[in-house]
Amino acid sequence: MSTRRLPSALERTAGRAGRLRAGAVLSALAATALLLGACSSSSSTSSSSSTTGAATLQSLQSWPTSSVSLQETGSSLLYPLFNLWTAYTQKQWPNVQISTASTGSGTGISQAAASTVAIGASDAYLSTAQTTQYPGLLNVPLAISAQQVNYNVPGLTGHLKLDGKTLSAIYQGTITNWNDPAIAALNPGVTLPNLKIVTIHRSDSSGDTFLFTSFLSATDPTGWGKTGGIGYGTTVAWPPVAGAVAAQGNGGMVTACAANPGCVAYIGVSYIDQATAKGLGYAALENKSGNFELPTTDAVAAEAAGFATKTPANGAVSMIYGSDPNGYPIVNYEYAILQTSQPNSTTAQAVKAFLAWALDPSGGNSPAYLDQVHFVALPSTVTQISVDLLAKLH
């Protein structure tokens, strides 16, 4: 399959429209009107659909009348979307003030587990060990995102094709130059420079690291995965590669890659505009069917669609390297990490109202928000899973 350019916002919306039911399209149009001020400051902005999921979303969007402050921290990939959401909700419901912080998914999980923040944000779902250690901790899917693989190769135009085994070899230091035969074989007809590769990885505990190393583990199980001895996680023991650079947050990854010609980096798709503005390219990655795909809305949605009915009641599922022939191979749910038991009833009500609005296809899960960060809305079946999880808060 040939690669595709990243579409404009209008093209992304049109591309997704062919995949959504008519009711969802109407909800997306309603969301646009909402952002233009057609909405009043009533206690709910839920979809008018009469389905069970929408009715439950509506019941959760009961905003408190007394003042409450919430803290959110964690995923730098999810951080831009949280800022879009809070900018709107705090105007509509000023009683609920929400502070946001980009600290990395590991911090989001740990601070939610310690009850020092109301909402942790994570690209990674909770591990079995974490749910055993913190039985009251939930991971609630909020939207679908993807991860790009960026590079800084001066003079190179178009999108390089890369696969997981080649990236594994690069991050292990066995492929060190951009004109290596393994990269050239994936890119026939492309003139590759004799330029040293500078690997860049996250210095903080990161859901992006979890996603990227999950991809390397799935595509190179004997070289990187469990039998290869490196594995995946929010932190890993990176192989000692000469000249490797560690950077904090997705913003730090963009800056570090731009500052190091020859770099390769894994960066959340919500930063694709910033990375492109800095002159960084991004790769078409080989999927499980052998096709090379860019992180377009269509390719991300195609990959995620195959996991909608496979998502368990606790919301924790890996969507890395799925089987859709048109799918982009690094996609995931973005999660809110929450304690079932909140400090008080007002806080619990505020968290439920805010996140239910964020899940609503007429609210935070509309293209008016998600297109700005290149995310994809949750399928209705997964939204219902999230609603059921939110309903547990007390």
Topology of this protein?
Blueprint: H1 9-17, H2 22-38, H3 52-60, E1 68-74, H4 79-92, E2 96-99, H5 105-113, E3 119-122, H6 128-133, E4 137-151, E5 161-162, H7 164-172, H8 181-186, E6 198-202, H9 207-219, E7 245-247, H10 249-259, E8 263-268, H11 272-277, E9 281-282, E10 284-286, E11 292-293, H12 297-305, E12 331-339, H13 345-359, H14 367-370, H15 380-390
Parallel strand pairs: 1-2, 1-3, 5-10, 6-7, 6-8
Antiparallel strand pairs: 3-12, 4-8, 4-9, 4-12, 10-11
Question: Overview of this structure, please?
Answer:
The protein has 394 residues and is of the alpha/beta class. The chain has 15 helices and twelve strands. It has helices at 9-17, 22-38, 52-60, 79-92, 105-113, 128-133, 164-172, 181-186, 207-219, 249-259, 272-277, 297-305, 345-359, 367-370, 380-390; strands at residues 68-74, 96-99, 119-122, 137-151, 161-162, 198-202, 245-247, 263-268, 281-282, 284-286, 292-293, 331-339. Strands 1, 2, 3, 4, 6, 7, 8, 9 and 12 form a nine-stranded mixed β-sheet that branches. Strand 10 and strand 11 (292-293) form a beta hairpin.
